[in-house]
Structure formats: structure tokens, C-alpha cells
Design goal:
Number of helices: 4
Helix content: 40-55%
Order of helices and strands: HHHH
Strand content: under 5%
Number of strands: 0
Mean pLDDT: 77
Structural class: mainly alpha
Low-confidence stretches: none
Length: 118
């Protein structure tokens, strides 16, 4: 027997009237029930807990000025084991080690000049 699933709908922003009505309802309810703190309550149109959490979850936007580039690179297992043994931040430590090496060994192209960004 198939399980009925709720339809996924995108919720529209609340109107000023809906916000005012929700605040009035919360105020009226809080005057009767002093034990409940409604100051951090969230009013939703429904759709279940997952939909509410999905609506509330904020995601990070695109980086407007990227300073790093994602690439695929292969390292020897011993190198990775050594850096990972240091715990979280091992990728940052590899980046720092490579920067340190570059400072003492300037990159040379075939013409003998230091290579610049493309």
C-alpha cells in the first residue's frame, strides 16, 4: 500500500495583516498563560516540521570574491596520513605548507621568469 505524502509547496512571505494577527493572538494567549515564553515563537503556514525547518534554515550565498580555487589533486598516502593525524584543519595546514615552500622556491616558467596567475 503506497504511503500518502504531503505535497511540497513553497510558502509565500507573510503579509503585514497576517503578522499583526499572529502577534495579537500570541499576546492574547500569553496574557492567559504566563508560563509560556512566546518571544521566540515561529508562525508557519503548516506543511510539517521538515518543511518549517527547511524554510527557516539559512544557507550561505555564493562567495562574491573567491580567494581559493577548488581542484582535484592526488597526494601520497603517507602525506595525507601525516596531515590528517593533526586533526581538523589538515587541508589548511597543507595549504600553509605549500605556501611556505613557494616562498623559498619561486615558480619558474620555461623562459626563466617567475610564473604569474593566468
Amino acid at each position: 500500500m503506497p504511503i500518502a505524502r504531503k505535497s511540497k509547496t513553497t510558502s509565500q512571505p507573510f503579509s503585514a495583516a497576517e503578522i499583526a494577527a499572529a502577534k495579537a493572538a500570541a499576546k492574547a494567549l500569553s496574557s492567559r498563560t504566563s508560563a509560556v515564553d512566546w518571544s521566540h515563537a515561529t508562525v508557519t503556514r503548516g506543511g510539517g516540521v521538515a518543511a518549517t525547518i527547511g524554510d527557516l534554515r539559512r544557507t550561505r550565498g555564493p562567495n562574491k570574491n573567491p580567494t581559493k580555487e577548488q581542484v582535484a589533486i592526488r597526494f601520497d598516502r603517507e602525506v595525507l596520513v601525516a596531515f590528517r593525524a593533526g586533526g581538523p584543519g589538515w587541508q589548511t595546514r597543507i595549504n600553509a605548507a605549500l605556501k611556505e615552500w613557494l616562498a623559498s622556491h619561486p615558480a619558474k616558467c620555461k623562459s626563466g621568469r617567475a610564473q604569474t596567475d593566468r
